[in-house]
Amino acid sequence: MSEIYTPTRDELERRISRYGALKEMTTRSKELARISQEAVDVIFARKLMPVILDDTKNPLAALRRFTGPRAPRCSSRYCRPGRDPACTRNGTYETFIVLEGCIEYHVGEPITHRITLDKWDAFSCPPFVYRGFRNVGTTDAVQLTVITGVTEGRDDVSMPDSIAQQVRREHGEPVLEAFKKVFRFDPPPGSRS
Prior knowledge:
The chain is built from 4 helices and 10 strands; from the N terminus they run ααβββββββββααβ. Residues 59-66 have low confidence and may be disordered. The chain has helices spanning 9-13, 37-43, 161-171, 173-180; strands spanning 47-52, 73-79, 93-100, 102-107, 113-118, 122-125, 131-135, 141-148, 158-159, 184-185. α3 packs across α4. By secondary structure, the protein is of the alpha+beta class. It has a single domain (26-185), classed as Jelly Rolls (Sandwich). A hairpin with a 5-residue loop joins β4 (102-107) and β5 (113-118). The chain has a 5-stranded antiparallel sheet with strand order 1-2-8-3-6, with no helix packed on it. A 3-stranded antiparallel sheet has the order 5-4-7, with no helix packed on it. The radius of gyration is 18 Å and the shape is globular.
C-alpha cells in the first residue's frame, strides 16, 4: 500500500496551468530566426500555447508552464482561417479537440481522408500516420492537442517530402535548409534514402 501524500500549496500552484499565465511557445529557434512568418506558417500553427510538456526532446519546449509526466503532453494551437500547418507523423497518439471554430483534419500522404470537426468534437490519430489540419472556418480556430504514448527522445517527428518541396518552391532552398536543421523530412515515396 502506498503512503498517503498531500502536496503543499506551493507544490500545487506549480502544477496549475492558468490560461492567462500561459506563455507562447517559440517557433523561432536560432536556426529559424531569419525566416519569414509566411514560411514559418507552412510548418507551424501561428500560435502554440503549452499546457503540459514532458522533459523529452522537443524542439518547441523552450517555454512551459510546468513539466508533466512522460505522458500526456498538452498544448493549445491557434490557427488563422485557411491556414494548415504541415502534415507530420510520429510515434505518438495525438488527440485533437476543437475548442473554437471548424477544423478539417487530413490523414495520409497523399491525403486519403478528410475529417471535419466542429467545436467540442475530438479526433484521436494513431502513431506513425501522417496527419495535418486546416482551419476551414471564417474566424480563428483553437484546438487542444493531447499527446500520449510519448516515445523515448521524441526525435521521431517527421514531415513528408511534399512539405519540403512546398517550402523549396514557395520560399527557396536556404529556407528549406534552415528547416532541415530543426525537422526531419521523409524521403520521397519510392526512393531508397
